[in-house]
Specification:
single chain; about 190 residues
């Protein structure tokens, strides 16, 4: 039952993620800009590593669920599923609140608006919080060393990406972003 619940949480997450990309593509908006464009080489490398990590993670998660190399007490596994589900809620709320400003990666120029409403009143990065909680929750439900390493690497890459996005937003929105940054925490 835990396996089915975890796979269902993952399915909701990835269906929402790809549905948003398809929806924006139909509107002429390029959502997946990780590693694309004329960006500094360090940022481009970070984004390409992040892209590789996030596209590899579902395989790592499914392998961890399938082989279940290590089993924790059932209540702890269910706690992981709940944490992952909360992450999916954060992710979807962040994605929906961003509407047409949603991007995966830092744009080359200001093609977006600063979103500070909805869940962005609680967190400056609810989609990243969602990714983090989902990955940590699934790791808690189905732990193993490979899964833990993949999650740790991905979380570090997310944090570095957030720092880069903050620099972009400071340049693009100036004092408006600085004021928002003073009022709302980076994560929670």
């Amino acid at each position: 039952m835990i396996k089915i619940a975890t796979l269902a949480v993952m399915a909701v997450f990835y269906i929402a993620y790809f549905a948003k990309q398809i929806s924006q593509r139909r509107q002429g908006v390029s959502t997946m800009i990780l590693g694309k464009g004329d960006k500094p080489s360090e940022q481009k490398r970070l984004e390409l590593a992040l892209k590789m990590a996030t596209f590899t993670m579902p395989a790592v998660e499914i392998a961890s669920i399938w082989w279940e190399l290590m089993t924790l007490p059932c209540w702890l596994q269910w706690m992981g599923v709940v944490i992952a589900a909360v992450g999916v809620v954060f992710f979807i709320a962040g994605m929906l609140t961003m509407k047409g400003s949603w991007r995966a990666g830092i744009p080359e120029k200001k093609e977006t608006s600063l979103v500070t409403s909805g869940i962005y009143r609680i967190s400056r990065n609810p989609a990243f919080v969602g990714f983090d909680l989902m990955y940590i929750g699934i790791l808690l439900a189905f732990p193993n060393a490979w899964h833990a390493a993949a999650v740790a690497i991905t979380l570090v890459l997310f944090h570095k990406q957030i720092l880069g996005e903050e620099q972009f937003l400071e340049g693009a929105f100036g004092e408006e972003y600085a004021d928002y940054k003073r009022r709302v925490r980076r994560y929670l």
